Amino acid sequence: MPELALKLEGLQPTGSFKVRGALAALSTVDADVPVVTASAGNHALGVAFAAHVLGRRATVVTSATASPVKVAAIRRFDVDLVQVGTRYDDAERHALELAARGAHFVSPYNDPDVIAGQATIGVELAEQLPGPLTVVCGVGGGGLSAGLGLWASTRPDVRVVGVEPAASAAMAAAVAAGHQVPIEVGATLADGAAGNIEPGSVTIDLVSRYVDELLTVTEDEIRDAIRFLATRCGVIAEGAAAAPVAAVLAGRVATRGRAVAVVSGRNIAPAVLAEIVTAAGTRSA
To answer: Is position 284 annotated as part of the catalytic site?
Structure first.
């Protein structure tokens, strides 16, 4: 395994990098305009935190099957929480319907301000590590990978690799087709990266142009990475956050210089974490 640095976004106040994009986006919306968002959980939590900090009203929509850990965290903030359907796609559809009545929709990824907020991870990496770097990040709707790719476009010594769960590789399908294409979304530990991409999302073109490579990892590989991070690094990571590490452990990432995995969040159900960590076959470094 190559030398691997970890960018620990689970240490953010909401336990996820999503707070970066949420703060960036809400800070640009007029104070008298309500905001609404849809999310698998972490972006909704980021918007709830940003609304609290900025003194805004917000409605957050998740599916009824969203992570209970993330939903419980959202409920700690004074926001209107709506749970609809069984998939992220259901939640997004409902949030867009609410936005059509006069609210500002803050997409988890299809929003230039959200993408700019996520790109601040790259700015910090530039301050923390000398190049050359291979930055490995998870990919769902593409906000994080698009932001990092745009940042890296000014850095010839940086390569960006995006990693999707094999059960929900919507971005790879969209990049291959040149536009959004519906996919079947399977069950995955990487719930934060699961779901279809909004038609016309700006992230598809940005990922196609600025992300060097897209990879997929299996559920077993994600489990191995969660276990590795917990037992060897003392780091709690949810499935989507462990996916970049999974790709590195599987030997799938061609590195240039130092490899940096963006461990994007820690919001995993304790029972799920306990089951994975205590399972047989702990991976060694």
So the answer is: no
Annotated active-site residue in 18, 67, 107, 201: 18
In this predicted model, what pLDDT tens digit does every residue of 93-107 receive, in sequence order?
999 999 999 999 999
Q: Which residues contact 120 (CB under 8 A, 6 or more apart)?
A: 20, 24, 147
- Catalytic pick among 39, 67, 107, 264: 264
CATH of the domain at 68: 3.40.50.1100
Q: pTM, whole model, 2 decimals?
A: 0.92
Is the domain of 124 the same as that of 262? yes
Cβ atoms < 10 Å from Cβ of 213: 15
Q: What is the pLDDT of residues 7-63, one digit of tens each?
A: 999 999 999 999 999 999 999 999 889 999 998 789 999 999 999 999 999 999 999
Whether 7 is catalytic is no
